Records
---
Amino acid sequence: MSTTFTIHVDGAAIPARPGQTIMEACDAAGLYIPRLCDVEGLAPQGSCRVCTVRDNGRCVSACTQPAMPEAVIEHDTESMNRYRRDLVTMLLHEGNHLCPGCEASGRCELQAMAYRLGITDSNRLPYLQPVRPLDASHPLWVLDTNRCIFCSRCIRASREQDGKNVFEYVGRGIHKRLAVNGNHLADTSAQEGDHAMSDGICPVGCIIRKGEGFSTPIGQRRFDKHLIGEEIENKSGRSDLSTEEAQ
Amino acid sequence: MKKLRLATTSLAGCFGCHMSLLDMDERLIDLLQFIEFDRSPLTDFKTFRQRCDIGLVEGGCCNEENVRVLRAFRENCDLLIAIGQCAIMGGLPVMRNAIMHAEQPLNECLQTAYAPSETVWNPACRIPADAELPLLLDKVYTCAEVVKIDYQIPGCPPSADALWYVLNAAVQGNPLDLPPELIRYD
Ligand code: SF4
Ligand code: SF4
Ligand code: SF4
């Protein structure tokens, strides 16, 4: 018998079912936890750590951690948000993120996350300014790996949904980078219709479709009008959350 | 009420950020009740008249003159704000850092720009070296790599609304923190 139970997120009682992760329970209740590597339709892997919450005092990734009855979870607090800001800042500094010249600008999840988290502080970290390869071999897509944030979404989509292995990581630590299964993208089995190459898989401007350019005018792009995560917050509305203080 | 003194400058930038300042339109007139311009391309003062409350810096540092001006701003401004992607992360000029890993990065940069090619007519292979020209740095530096920066207003350029928000907050003595809807990196 599957019974629902309650988890307590920042003082709000959230219903959860056995088998749900903390993020799934919060999503269903209209409570958005920031995330970059997790995307609808792919198995979560908890690698970007942007969804980190404190679950009974322990830092865990909300996208992989099962919700447990009566768990006390810290999520939208200054300390957790500072942690998230640091992670997203490091991603922005690790690659080359020249947003004014990037076709993903306005629909990029990394950029939108930085807006949501309010990243404007003066730089404490150096920009690493890597010189990673740009692969324009394929007739349909360009890969600019200087913008890759190592979310593995393309790797998982290719493996899980397309039954291919077009993408993989090579190297370790700071030298880790995205590689393709061949000398160039054009030598791989990547083709039109692949889930890995579809809109919304690459959260940034690393996998770019050729021939589109800056097709959506500024002001009408995905994150021009609303913050990332608002679609989840608006889905079921947070007003119907019962806060324990109110009870 | 004592007016705040404001200085502005454009280093390795395109002046787009200053255009955005002008884009505040009639709000500039409101602002002028509380703010006085010191050294700025808008007043054409080349040196500081007095110590300033706020300095706005557009552009990063690509030559030694940029570094000198930026240091003068730090010395003469209580609050130093980097405005625009060029000042914050190098912007378009920083693309030249992609060749900084080369053996002689500066040479490669100048050769790419001036060596004769399909698009460059320069038979004598001359590279500008007039003593009047500021010396190029080995690479482009962000403002925060050169001096301490107190706040950043991102954007390319930051919108007039974002600039207005921060200047207004400074005048009112409020925290400068931009709300998410005014934060843009493009
Ligand atoms: S991938 Fe995103 S953050 Fe990076 S340059 Fe493009 S828009 Fe900016
Ligand atoms: S290419 Fe895009 S989807 Fe693939 S790992 Fe990099 S950022 Fe993620
Ligand atoms: S940030 Fe943009 S508008 Fe401002 S100086 Fe640089 S290129 Fe020009």
---
Amino acid sequence: MPLPRFRYVAPESLEAACELLAEHGDRARVMAGGTDLLLRMKRLPRAGAPEVVIGLRGVPGLDTIRIDDGGLSIGALTLLASVAGSTDVNRLCPALASAARSTATVQIRNMGTVVGNLCNASPAADTATPLLVYGASVLLVRPGGERRTVPLEDFFLGPGRTALGPGEIVAEVRVPPPCGRAGSDYQRLSQRSRVDIAAVCVSTLVCLDRDGSAARVRIALGAVAPVPLRAKSAERVLEGRPPTAELVAQAAAAAAREARPISDVRSSGEYRRRMVEVLARRSLVRSASLAGGAA
Amino acid sequence: MAKVTIDLRVNGEPHEVAVHPWRTLAQALREDLGLTGTKIGCETGDCGACTVLIDGRSVTSCLTLAVEAAGREITTIEGVAPSGTDLDALQEAFVRLGAVQCGYCTSGMILSARYLLSHNPAPTELEIRQALSGNLCRCTGYQKIVEAIAEAAKANG
Ligand SMILES: Cc1cc2nc3c(=O)[nH]c(=O)nc-3n(C[C@H](O)[C@H](O)[C@H](O)COP(=O)(O)OP(=O)(O)OC[C@H]3O[C@@H](n4cnc5c(N)ncnc54)[C@H](O)[C@@H]3O)c2cc1C
Ligand code: FES
Ligand code: FES
């Protein structure tokens, strides 16, 4: 399976990369690890493949995990493997570290990036749901160097479609500081093992008040809608109340009602919906107990 | 479209090669440098037959562009044995414990195992199996491969 022909450019700054992307428009693609892009190019009919590949590897300073103001930023070239192994990520965003560890294979985690995983905009992207529950946003750069921040929730528009405008590139993904008594968790189900793309994935976050009621609840579902999705009505079932087993079960059932799964090779829609309920319950129980609450 | 001249550092030796930008590292190693120990199976990142180390990390060379590997330290199966007549501990254990049948997966298995042992010198059986999640073998059923890696880890330790 040879790659189609293309021109390869390696700009030395993000601004230069944006200019190149704007100049070549739809004929160009940005490349981080290339594990999605090159695979897609091998599979695409020649006419559909990009003519120019803009490699980001030559841009310095993108391979970083930074803590600022108590929050976390992950650069555009930071590997899934680095995120999975980072003590900072494991401490501040354990569900993200767990999701990064569950993505693909050892080799692909040594090549692929978290930002690439987001920009590829697969509904099943492993790192999308944990970042949604942590309230992450992406920092975009456009030609001229202007920057804007987009909440991750507004970034995904459909399978393979994002809010990236012409010439825009993601510089980093940012996670705000965690709330006080917080617990979070990632659950994933696939046909055989973690090498398979997830059939369903669920992330949850529970922040507890001093009185033990859930001040903030976040539930995000993957692979059960055209985009990774927040289950907001399920979150409202729990917010302001103590996370008892009964309420957690009600919230999980609400999450399953919010899913809009399709049937495909990985799973039937009906099975996916039932599994959302199971995984959401499991995940909420775990998040609540990590936060120090009951359930 | 013009070829680009790049410097590929393979097993400690520099090589100047002229490649098209769409040439994968697997193709460049096998066809331009004649290092056919790196195998090509699926070409889609799933089977791990093409695994090599770049700057010490295991990657699938079928999804790596040769131009992006330029200037970095590449290790292939040809660079694993300490000399033309000796094998390293992993190779030794694979041979002794029957972890090689047709051999097609072996180069990739050895390099994945080497990567594992480089950051985890005493892995558990589960850790060994997880480290091989990106390497498929159609012959051995994995058991002997897992045993060989455990054995080599003991020999090293
Ligand atoms: C064998 C195999 C198994 C896999 N298993 C999984 C899995 O289990 N779960 C999973 O979620 N994924 C999986 N993937 C998909 C892929 O590895 C991940 O999505 C990975 O995180 C992509 O990162 P990358 O850096 O390689 O992206 P690339 O391929 O470099 O880029 C992906 C897309 O994002 C765009 N892009 C990249 N960076 C930027 C940027 N900074 N700004 C704007 N656009 C950008 C590219 O143009 C491209 O369209 C698998 C892939 C393979 C080959
Ligand atoms: S040939 Fe590269 S992973 Fe199969
Ligand atoms: S020995 Fe034949 S594929 Fe592994």
